[in-house]
Write a structure and sequence with these properties.
Length: 463
């Protein structure tokens, strides 16, 4: 247990100033979550014994006395006097986690919902006295109705907002999108649809790094025909030089269909990928577009097997250089299942590399740094580390490409791939029963999004 030293100092000064005995108050709300390492507190909320007249107490902008009674089960005096209803730390009382859980269950606000999930997770690996609150928890039907009503209301709100946005958005407006996410969307979920992008990317690379033309670009332009330029390679070099000097011209958005498939702007996207431009402007055209440039197009347009293999290999390099892939870590408790799990992954997604690390010397540090990327609560990370302590520190890192990852926003507004969530569920469900004292999650870790990949790939592993 730990609590902010400076905040405790402020509290001591405040209580001393008001002649309040430390034993006559109890910290409630997020302070308990902070004490147990579940999340940081926002302020200090207190309950005080009924013998005090709160109106005479000097006010503080960070320390507040909440309305009495704080709990609907126990009086404030009972919570303060009964050591089963509070936790003692550094001469201060903190309301027990069970009562905080009960209060949040009944409030059931959006901000409470996340805390409820964290408390349930915490209770699985810590002593939790359900008898204190079981009879007083809201019925599931009651919570189900409230939760679904909120979801329904938010869906209607989003639809109304989208309706007016689409209706009144000016025809010349455009959006911006992460470049690597746009690359990942050039797929039907099974096959990559824009191998012409890879040829254009390689053309830039040959021109800038080797000062020569890329023969497959000329062949691509000849086979596709209908170029608006008399000399396509010359026009492309002008575009490349402009990118090199000035970056992306945001007055030239890339045209996409309603599914974010490329309609026009493949040369600009290839340049953005090569020059590591994080975001590109796009304009959505409300239609569906079927790209002709899947691998079969190259097979039927006089490209040799060697040429096609060259393009496919470089596709992997483009995805890796732009972090448009996901990094998987298989943890020590499932070491004997590494090969089996990899086969499951391979059936669903394209594996681009696999590396085993034996006897990782900085294992604990690596785990902490990895989960710091995702802002996982400290108590969870330390719990994972303690449960993996008895295993040899051997891990496997697998890099995969997920075609069309289908991102959604999490509660913290960050993106997470729906397909990543699904893959983790499958692996955890299959192997969690094989681990003693299983805790979420000491089987598999996958970054939520491409930003996580860019940060996790650079973490130091001493093996």
């Amino acid at each position: 247990m730990n609590y902010d030293i400076n905040d405790l100092k402020k509290l001591k000064e405040f209580l001393t100033l008001n002649n309040i005995n430390f034993d006559d108050v109890c910290l409630v709300g997020s302070s308990t979550l902070s004490l147990l390492g579940i999340r940081n507190h926002d302020d200090i909320d207190l309950i005080i014994k009924s013998k005090y007249i709160t109106e005479t107490i000097i006010k503080h902008d960070y320390i507040n006395f909440v309305q009495s009674p704080w709990s609907s089960i126990y009086s404030d005096d009972e919570i303060i006097d009964n050591n089963k209803l509070h936790i003692k730390y550094d001469n201060f009382k903190f309301v027990c986690l069970e009562l905080l859980f009960h209060k949040k269950k009944w409030h059931n606000r959006d901000k409470d919902y996340k805390d409820i999930i964290e408390i349930i997770e915490f209770s699985k690996s810590n002593i939790f006295n359900w008898e204190l609150i079981n009879k007083n928890l809201p019925k599931k039907n009651h919570l189900y109705f409230l939760r679904n009503f909120k979801i329904f209301f938010l869906k209607i709100k989003r639809k109304i907002k989208r309706f007016f946005l689409n209706r009144y958005l000016h025809k010349d407006c455009f959006q911006i999108i992460p470049t690597n996410i746009l690359l990942s969307r050039q797929s039907n979920g099974i096959n990559f649809l824009r191998y012409d992008l890879i040829v254009r990317y390689l053309t830039i690379k040959y021109y800038l790094e080797q000062n020569k033309d890329y023969d497959l670009y000329k062949k691509l332009q000849k086979e596709r025909g209908k170029s608006p330029h008399k000399n396509p390679i010359k026009a492309f070099k002008v575009l490349i030089n402009n990118f090199k000097l000035s970056g992306y011209n945001f007055n030239k958005p890339i045209a996409l269909d309603k599914n974010l498939k490329l309609i026009d702007g493949s040369h600009r996207l290839a340049c953005a990928l090569y020059f590591n431009i994080a975001y590109v402007p796009v304009k959505i055209i409300k239609t569906s577009f079927i790209s002709p440039f899947n691998i079969n197009w190259f097979k039927t347009h006089n490209f040799s097997k060697e040429e096609i293999d060259h393009i496919k290999i470089n596709k992997i390099d483009v995805f890796k250089s732009t972090n448009a892939y996901f990094q998987i870590v298989l943890w020590p408790p499932v070491e004997k299942f590494f090969n089996e799990i990899e086969k499951i992954i391979k059936k669903k997604y394209e594996i681009i590399s696999t590396v085993d690390y034996a006897n990782v010397r900085n294992f604990n540090e690596y785990v902490r740094n990895l989960y710091k990327i995702d802002d996982i609560n400290k108590w969870k990370v330390e719990r994972k580390i303690s449960l993996m302590d008895k295993y040899p520190k051997n891990i496997r890192i697998i890099d995969i490409i997920i075609k069309n990852p289908e991102f959604r926003k999490k509660g913290n507004k960050n993106l997470i791939s729906v397909k990543v969530e699904e893959l983790k569920r499958i692996i955890r469900k299959k192997y969690s029963n094989n681990i003693d004292n299983y805790f979420h999650d000491i089987i598999i870790h996958i970054g939520d999004n491409f930003n996580h990949t860019s940060r996790s790939r650079n973490l130091n592993i001493n093996a």
